[in-house]
Specification:
single chain, alpha/beta, Aspartate Aminotransferase, domain 2, Aspartate Aminotransferase, domain 1, three-stranded antiparallel sheet, 15 helices, 12 strands, 10% strand, binds pyridoxal-5'-phosphate
């Protein structure tokens, strides 16, 4: 048998602490008092919360067992498309946790925050260099918040020219947050279909671009994993009618050190530090979605901005055209420190190599699986590739069954049913940090599943069978949640 990471033994059950507690158990003992207890004042007596009585080992086992129910990048391959679930070096976590950083109060005066301000200033410079843009704001806490900030910037830019266009072009291969961010800013998203190559054609943009359109939001590489090759021509069309080009750069992991966003016509671009630049994500937690802009949009960036005055870094609000604040203080600074350390430790050459390997890994996986799974766009991809469940249709096996079965083999399922332009999509992003051995294991598991579809489809319909939880009723879970009172 193959050495898949998935197994069944020693996945331990664990009840709630309330079910586990026994009256009188203690996690510690304190010396017997040698003074008479004082008579408590009735008015001051508080029963305290109703917590169970537990011993130290009860508590240690409880939380240790719960931690083994989690799956993360530190446990195994996590090929979730459009998420860049790559390994994040622990050293960056350690550095961001240094007391000088972690305990710095955001209200410290500038003169006592020079170190952190310098790091943020330098990080802005690094990100400007990596993207080819002129100015950077680190404040937004997520990709989607970067998008919203970008939309506000577009609005402020047009307003400064006495214009109030009301629409934004969003292709069908954009990330789902794009039309949502445009709508939240009050724009009407105008959908444009991608062509047979899975990218946007200049003609289709030309058809819808008009004076009422504020600009376009382009995810590049897009959610099919393809580079928008016509972006320069598209940008020219949009610019010619007074619009701006917003680039969703959350997929920067595919193009670091390779693509200069400014030169391909992008005016505003956000990055996801919590995807590309060494912050773990996937279960919530702090992130950062910096926006990088061209020179003429710099005056609109959120405040406060870090400026250098007489050799000192100071926070300045003196930008009258700014869209204002988008986050408390400076955003999630710990995430920025991790990104700064990651970029310094990698160096320019290795950032480029990281993107090259991310693309190589995705293409390797695509080539080794395309005889088993339907590949709707059979061409060289960037950091991710998209399959469908079409080949398994005869057995009535669907994408969901394939994803669930992958858990039995010890892998996190890929992104499924997204992008929406592909029916039954299975979107795989292996990232550069998976070795060939680990990629081969994932490929072998998927090939084995394709074989099972024909030989034993019931196995898939019941999957996962080896996991702690079996197939859940996801619709009921969402519609009728069982909440503990
Ligand atoms: C992840 C992602 C986003 C959203 O980022 P969040 O930090 O989750 O808000 C936007 N666009 C693309 C292409 C993404 O992959």
């Amino acid at each position: 048998m193959k050495d898949f990471p998935g197994t069944t033994g020693l996945v331990l059950n664990e009840p709630l602490l309330w079910e586990k507690g026994r009256a009188g158990r203690q996690g510690f003992s304190i010396p017997r008092t040698d003074v008479e207890p004082a008579q408590p004042d009735e008015d001051l007596v508080w029963e305290g919360p109703s917590l169970p009585d537990l011993s130290e080992i009860d508590v240690v086992r409880h939380y240790t067992r719960l931690s083994t129910w989690n799956f993360g990048i530190d446990t195994g391959t996590y090929p979730l498309g459009s998420c860049t679930m790559k390994y994040n070096p622990k050293i960056n976590e350690k550095l961001a946790g240094l007391p000088g950083f972690a305990k710095a109060h955001p209200l410290l005066p500038n003169r006592l925050s020079q170190g952190i301000l310098e790091i943020m200033f330098e990080l802005q410079r690094f990100l400007a260099e990596i993207t080819g843009m002129d100015a950077v704001c680190l404040q937004p806490a997520a990709g989607a918040q970067g998008e919203l900030s970008g939309m506000l910037l577009i609005h402020a830019f047009h307003k400064s020219q006495g214009r109030r266009p009301s629409k934004i072009i969003v292709p069908d291969t954009a990330h789902g947050t794009n039309p949502a961010s445009a709508a939240l800013c009050g724009y009407s998203p105008v959908a444009v279909k991608s062509n047979e190559k899975g990218i946007l054609s200049a003609e289709s943009v030309d058809k819808v671009m008009d004076d009422e359109t504020a600009g376009i939001m382009l995810t590049n590489p897009n959610t099919l994993g393809f580079f928008e090759e016509n972006i320069k021509e598209i940008a020219d069309i949009v610019h010619a009618r007074g619009g701006l080009v917003y680039g969703d750069g959350a997929n920067m992991n595919a193009i670091m050190g390779i693509v200069d966003a400014a030169r391909i016509g992008v005016d505003i671009l956000h990055l996801n530090l919590h995807k590309t630049f060494s912050t773990p994500h996937g279960g919530g937690g702090p992130g950062a979605g910096p926006i990088c802009v061209r020179k003429d949009l710099e005056p609109f960036l959120p405040v406060p901005r870090i400026v250098r005055k007489k050799g000192e870094y100071v926070l300045s609000e003196d930008f009258p055209q700014s869209i204002g604040k988008v986050h408390a203080f400076m955003g999630n600074v710990g995430v920025m420190i991790k990104a700064y350390c990651y970029i310094l430790s990698m160096g320019a050459e290795n950032l480029k190599k990281c993107s090259q390997l991310a693309v190589l890994n995705a293409n390797y996986l695509k080539e080794r699986l395309k005889d088993k799974f339907n590949l709707p766009y059979d061409r060289t991809c960037m950091h991710e590739c998209v399959f469908t469940d079409k080949n398994q249709a005869a057995e009535k096996i669907r994408t969901l069954d394939i994803a669930k079965r992958l858990m039995d083999y010890g892998f996190h399922p890929p992104t499924i049913y997204f992008p929406l332009v592909v029916n039954g999509a299975i979107m795989i992003e292996p990232t550069e940090t998976e070795s060939k051995q680990d990629l081969d294991l994932l490929i072998d598991a998927l090939r084995a599943i394709a074989h099972e579809c024909r030989e034993n489809p019931d196995l898939l319909r019941d999957a996962p069978t080896r996991c702690k939880m079996k197939r859940l009723d996801e619709v009921s879970a969402a519609r009728k949640p069982h909440l503990i009172e």
